[in-house]
Design goal:
alpha/beta, 17% strand, single chain, six-stranded antiparallel sheet, six-stranded mixed sheet, elongated, 21 helices
Length: 580
């Protein structure tokens, strides 16, 4: 679920512990434009690194400050009047009043833990939540802008095509899966005749040996009996004689004699009656066992022909088991598998036709989605290129013109992104035809064009907190001031904007100013961040203006820039720099 622009979602607090050169840092934030300045190498990027890690970037132990056991980042967002964000938390059972607390811990083993409102979450869930809260534009965003995929993504974002893009990608994945199934059907059909012939031969051979009804364990048991019946009869008869049938020395005779003798003793010693009773029971049990043994022996009869048949049957089964590379007891199930495969081949044409029908249906649905996507892209391209061109002219390219071109490819088959090739073309001077960005734009021009695109597409962005990392690289003077004003206007449009900058013209536009400093104490180096106002802010702007030496002249210049900025009415700025 995405978070809408009209919702008030604000980053109110950032806490860092033992991350890189930061030992401990706690910052409170407000709405509007916040600028971050400091000497080169002071560690301004560490704040962006911390935010990225807290919002789901990949982590490893290299982020931990030397000497520490772990790094920890905490973020706090205020979600007042933000039903979509609260709904996301509700859906994931993470609700906690109207706030969202994010915590990320990185251990020395490189593993990390993530928590939202005190409950553990997966990295994927953290990334999903973070994408709706904060959007970071790095200092190399203009490099990505040269790639066709990024240009297409920006156009789709401006056209709010996210749902249609996902539908098109899903249709493509289904289309590709069905095509692979059809290819397997075609390949199977090529080998069908030979495979079918082999299956029929194997099934017939197994059926001739009655494998379907095979009870292998019963056969083995009967064979064991027949093969040892002579020994069984001999041993059984011998023990039957010992137990019962020997009239002079059998167990039964001995028991009878003992009972008779003890019965006479019982008349003299009654306590022997218990023993006599037990012997009587034993006599009965021996007799019953002997009778059962006799019946079993009488039922057994050596059958040489049956034994021969069993040996031949088992030999055939073992031969088939080796041939089919199965254990003997697995042959019935193997026969069933072969029958199923043969049946599948017999019905393969029906299956292939069903797959073909579904394939054609998905192809048609894909084409409808791709054509709708193309239409929306072409419509949005006209509006977007006008807005970007207007902004480019404001940013120091008075003759600049950007064209968003959408080419419908004559693709023979679908692609994940539809049938369109999106390309941004630019003309920096009149009379010259638009050409691809990479061929006509310098680094400074690309930075300005990138910023213009980000501002032009801002209405379609879903993240209410925007972070710009040195997007003013390669510009200065009046253009830097305009960039600062554009960023300030973004902060007045219900968003929270952060900007890392080296330019005083941008820094003075900030409603809030944070200074990033690196301090070395012995062998340890730490980065600190503190808010500036009044004289301290004037000193920092003067440093940015004057370099190593800060003179009274640069201080006066800094004071003038800050005073002029504070006196401006935002309405006047907007009317002059309004996006056309």
């Amino acid at each position: 679920m995405e978070l809408g622009l009209s919702q008030l979602v604000m980053l109110v607090h950032l806490s860092i512990r033992d991350l890189a050169v930061v030992e401990a840092l706690d910052l409170e934030f407000e709405s509007g434009l916040t600028v971050l300045t400091g000497e080169t190498g002071a560690g301004k990027s560490i704040l962006l690194t911390a935010l990225g890690l807290a919002l789901g970037d990949r982590a490893d132990s290299g982020f931990i400050r030397p000497g520490a056991t772990r790094a920890e980042i905490n973020l706090a967002f205020d979600l007042i009047d933000s039903p979509a964000a609260i709904q996301w938390l509700n859906d994931n059972e993470l609700t906690q009043d109207n706030e969202c607390l994010i915590r990320r811990i990185i251990g020395q083993d490189g593993r990390s833990k993530a928590f939202v409102n005190g409950r553990p979450v997966t990295l994927q869930a953290l990334q999903e939540l973070g994408a709706g809260l904060v959007e970071i534009h790095g200092q190399h965003a203009h490099v990505r802008l040269l790639k066709a995929a990024e240009q297409r993504r920006l156009l789709d974002e401006a056209a709010q095509n996210q749902v249609l893009v996902m539908q098109t990608e899903e249709f493509y994945r289904r289309w590709r899966s069905l095509r692979e199934e059809l290819e397997r059907c075609v390949l199977a059909a090529r080998n069908q005749a030979s495979r079918e012939e082999l299956l029929r031969y194997q099934i017939e051979e197994l059926e001739q040996h009655d494998i379907a009804d095979l009870d292998y364990s019963a056969l083995v048991e009967e064979h064991t009996l027949q093969a040892n019946i002579g020994k069984i009869l001999e041993t059984g008869q011998s023990q039957l004689n010992t137990l019962y049938e020997d009239e002079h020395r059998s167990v039964t005779v001995c028991l009878a004699q003992a009972i008779h003798a003890l019965e006479d003793v019982c008349q003299l010693a009654p306590e022997f009656q218990g023993a006599v009773a037990i012997l009587g029971e034993a006599q009965v049990q021996v007799k019953e066992a002997s009778l059962q043994l006799r019946r079993e022996l009488e039922s057994l009869e050596a059958d040489p022909s049956r034994l021969e048949w069993l040996e031949l049957r088992l030999a055939d089964i073992h031969r088939l088991a080796r041939k089919h590379q199965r254990r003997p007891e697995e042959l019935p199930e193997h026969l069933k598998t072969l029958r199923d495969e043969l049946d599948a081949i017999a019905h393969s044409s029906e299956v292939a036709q069903a797959i073909r029908d579904e394939f054609e249906q998905i192809t048609a649905e894909y084409r409808r989605a791709a054509e709708a996507l193309s239409e929306r892209r072409r419509s949005a391209a006209m509006m977007l290129q006008e807005r970007i061109s207007s902004l480019i002219r404001d940013l120091g390219m008075p003759q600049g013109n950007l064209l968003v071109q959408v080419h419908s490819l004559d693709a023979k088959e679908p692609t994940p992104h539809g049938f369109d090739q999106v390309e941004f073309l630019v003309s920096a001077n009149p009379g010259l035809p638009p050409r691809p960005l990479a061929k006509v734009a310098s680094g400074g021009e690309l930075s300005r064009i990138s910023l213009a695109i980000q501002v032009a597409a801002i209405d379609s962005k879903t993240a209410p907190t925007l972070i710009f990392d040195e997007v003013d690289t390669g510009v200065g003077g009046r253009i830097a001031e305009i960039i600062g004003q554009k960023l300030r206007l973004l902060g007045r449009e219900g968003r929270q904007v952060f900007c890392v900058t080296h330019l005083p013209q941008v820094a003075v536009q900030g409603q809030h100013h944070l200074l990033v400093e690196k301090v070395s104490q012995g062998d340890a180096t730490q980065t600190f961040v503190r808010p500036l106002s009044g004289t301290e802010r004037k000193q920092e702007v003067a440093r940015m203006l004057g370099g190593i030496r800060v003179t009274q002249q640069t201080l006066a210049h800094a004071e003038e820039m800050l005073r002029i900025d504070e006196s401006k009415e935002i309405g006047e700025c907007w009317s002059y720099f309004e996006v056309k």
